[in-house]
Amino acid sequence: MYLSSLALRNFRNIVETEILPSPAFNVLWGDNGQGKTNILESIYIIGHLKSFRNTRNEDLIEHNSIRSQLHGEIISGGSKRTVDIGIESRGKEVLLDGKEVRHAATFFSALRPVIFSPEEVALTKGAPAGRRALLDRAIFQIDPAYLPRAQEYERCLRQRNALFRTPGGTNQIASWTEALIRAGLHIRRSRSAYLTRITAIFNDVYKKISGNRETASIILPYTPENEQGLEDYFRQELERCRHREILTGQTLAGPHRDDPLFQINGRSIRQFASQGQQRSFMLAFKTAQIIDIEEQTGEPPVLLLDDMTSELDKNRQGYFFNFLLSRKGQVFVTTTDIQPMISAGLTEARFFSVKNGILRQDQ
Ligand SMILES: Nc1ncnc2c1ncn2[C@@H]1O[C@H](COP(=O)(O)OP(=O)(O)OP(=O)(O)O)[C@@H](O)[C@H]1O
After folding, report:
1. DSSP calls for 122-183
2. What ipTM did this prediction achieve?
3. Opening angle at CA 187, ends 181 and 192, nearest 5
4. Percent of the chain, pLDDT > 90?
5. At the topology level of CATH, where does 1-113+302-363 sit?
6. Phi and psi for 99 in degrees, rounded to 5?
7. From atom 26 of ligand 1, which residue's Cα is the shortest distance away?
8. Which of 8, 17, 170, 292 has a C-alpha 20 to 30 A away from that of 264?
9. What is the pLDDT of residues 104-127, one digit of tens each?
10. Domain locations in the chain as residue ranges
11. Ligand 1 midpoint to CA 36 (Å)
């Protein structure tokens, strides 16, 4: 699966551009603030409908315009698919192969881009919501059933919270508690199963990146193996919070409050990790995600790497370049300095210079 053509109009600082990327390696290079990340963002939106940056539709539209237009052509399993996305401040219009998209799940399987960006690295150290989002996004991408389940959980959560604030509503809480537990168990089971599946690769990659000097782990606050135990745990959590829930009018336990623990050498990343260690952690997580997508779908995903080599020492950089070179999938990487890539042997890559939102393919 790869992006064979990308055309953008009035997207961020890119007024008009069309590129024909290589099915293998593409390097977007240029000074800071020229539009490299914007290109990656457009590809990410073609795969996910949303940006990986926390942005509103109007931020995506070129300042002097009222509409952005994104067009992507994707080669998958030997056939071509097209994606067209029109963005206006009031919303997005999406066409897959010229037809309106009814189910988001159909759409998410069209390109499956995986992003590695400094914004995401920051999530490892931030609030629990960011770490949950990292995990959930990875699962959404591979499991079409996860999105409706997450939506069902959100619905139960909203209903249950509303009852806390409705006079006499607490009498009806019990049935919504049961619905919440049922829906929540799906989410927790999926999160556990996903981590169980990728843990071996993740551990292995992290060890290699760190030259066998460190170990990393992602730990959920519940045990994955035991189904009944998972349910009992959820009930006990709710029971423990009951009094506070009535006081605050909010559901205080469940998948929406889980805090996945990211650790290096048994210590929380939040408190101890350096920038380089956080990056290595994300590299290992994303690498595991990529390998998992490849194993589950039989096709390598498109990899988007935004400025990923800064703050990695030479050994860690070297490991990652070797990994990239050994892969079959399509890669887009941004950089201000192409020299390390040329030295690493990425000579087969297609290079695009980016200046003031204008892209030029180097000869
Ligand atoms: N809606 C918009 N309309 C016009 N220009 C925009 C819009 N949104 C962002 N920009 C411009 O895009 C540029 C930033 O582009 P981008 O984030 O892709 O930079 P970059 O080349 O990746 O740089 P860096 O190496 O610093 O990450 C800035 O000049 C910013 O002003």
Report:
1. HHTTS-HHHHHHHHHHHHHHH-TTHHHHHHHHHHHHHHHHHHHTSTTGGGGHHHHHHHHHHH
2. 0.96
3. 115
4. 65
5. Rossmann fold (3.40.50)
6. -115, 150
7. 32
8. 292
9. 777 777 788 999 888 888 888 899
10. 1-113+302-363
11. 8
